[in-house]
Amino acid sequence: MTTTAEVNEFTGRLAELVKQVQAGNEVLLTQERKPVAKIVSTSEKEIVSGAKLQIHSLKGHRVLTPVISQSELADEMFSRQ
After folding, report:
1. What is the spatial distance between Cα 47 and Cα 53, in angstroms, rounded to a whole number?
2. Residues in contact with 6: Cβ distance below 8 Å, sequence separation at least 6, in sequence order
3. Which of 11, 26, 48, 71 could lock 2 by a disulfide, CB 3.0 to 4.6 Å apart?
């Protein structure tokens, strides 16, 4: 089941809408009756696995960084040459 809520009433109904999402329902946020966002349930496992996928995409790539001291970095950041 999908529940629709206007953005301007969202904060007043947040607790109710979160309970609906936890029960497996979707919440569609609208602004002037046009959809702007959808809130769906997720599990902690899905969040962690998504993060792992992003990290694995960096595996095997070399990143070259210059050797620079903290004072040199500060000078560069604040243009104190």
Report:
1. 10
2. 29, 30, 31, 33
3. 26
Q: Per-residue pLDDT tens for 22-77?
A: 898 999 999 998 999 998 888 766 666 655 555 566 667 777 777 888 888 888 78
Report the alpha-carbon distance of residue 20 to residue 56 in Å, rounded.
34
CB 41 within 8 A of CB 32: no
Structural tokens at position 78:
């604040």
DSSP class of residue 23 equals T
